[in-house]
Amino acid sequence: MIPTITVFERSPDGGRGLARDTRVRWALEETGQAYAVRCVSFRAMKQPAHLALHPFGQIPTFEEGDLALFESGAIVLHLAHRHPGLLPDDPDARARAIAWMFAALNTVEPPILEREQTPYAVGDRPWCAELLSILDDRVRARLSQLSAHLGRSEWLDGAFSAGDLMMVSVLLRLKSLALLDEFSNLGSYVARGEDRPAYRRAFAAQLLANTQKQPPV
Amino acid sequence: MIPTITVFERSPDGGRGLARDTRVRWALEETGQAYAVRCVSFRAMKQPAHLALHPFGQIPTFEEGDLALFESGAIVLHLAHRHPGLLPDDPDARARAIAWMFAALNTVEPPILEREQTPYAVGDRPWCAELLSILDDRVRARLSQLSAHLGRSEWLDGAFSAGDLMMVSVLLRLKSLALLDEFSNLGSYVARGEDRPAYRRAFAAQLLANTQKQPPV
User: Which residue numbers in chain B have pLDDT < 70?
Assistant: First the structure.
């Protein structure tokens, strides 16, 4: 039996790959796992059937046999624990790769997401530009630290891992802003992630799903 | 050899237990592990020696033998994987408990932290109150979903787990605001967490460290 993930019936980004199902698709591709997809409309996402799978009414979810999971970080880690390809064998290196997953999700993504959401949330307020400039500086501070750590390395800690998968996914949110251009090694790092065959397959799959679409349920 | 964690030389909250070392102390106490503490000043936190341990210049870090970890989520998960007491034995239940850790850190904490930081970041701007009200509503939306999931259960998914440890820690940030009072089951949930002997020991240890303090290095 292959696992089933849920994805946006129509992603708000129109297929730019920024919805969190892309991270899970990428992990499935890196580990060579086939998967099925179930689309969920914005309306269905807030209904009891989906809330039973995802208490916060979001995507993605992951179902395999009796197991149902939510949170892309948890799903990627679950796949990484069960299939080779996303975590090193050495226990210490494995713990460090997992630390980079948490760093991506709890330290780097929150200021990026806040920056990304703010124009939607308060774009009509006269003070929006002032707030955006403060949030830009906060993102910049994190990117500067990450850039200093990465230096001239290819990946964050040795070979490509679930930590890189998550960090690249988080940084991709900045693609439409100029911020990433200020740190050339981070730009190259993201490009290396996007160049991986598994990422390309994941991206193509979500793009197809978002451009050849069934009508909403 | 016992592990060493780093903590604020002087916590910005003056010992209210909101610094992220409390989460790690709590996990160490739940799993019955002795530990040593090294205090780091704000200045030392941004110096190369500490940045080599924590690329984002924060606390806590965790060192045990050759392993050095950062990110409280990663450290708690590392302890939970290696010692009984924080994760169920059943593989599916274990994956779900880990999902709640990610939910706490990537879905619930970001809007709470944003709400908490905003008065410090833009408290002098005339639009701060307007922004705070928007951020309050965002926190409220998450708490409402979490409250609906928890219902009358004691913990998020069966027995107490690392998922609860992290969720209670995240919700504790709201203690000084009235928001948590709007969801009585969440208030009781947090109180149950605070009542655990392991939490009490962790809280007492950080309080002592923050009130009987060596001078800054």
Answer: 213-217
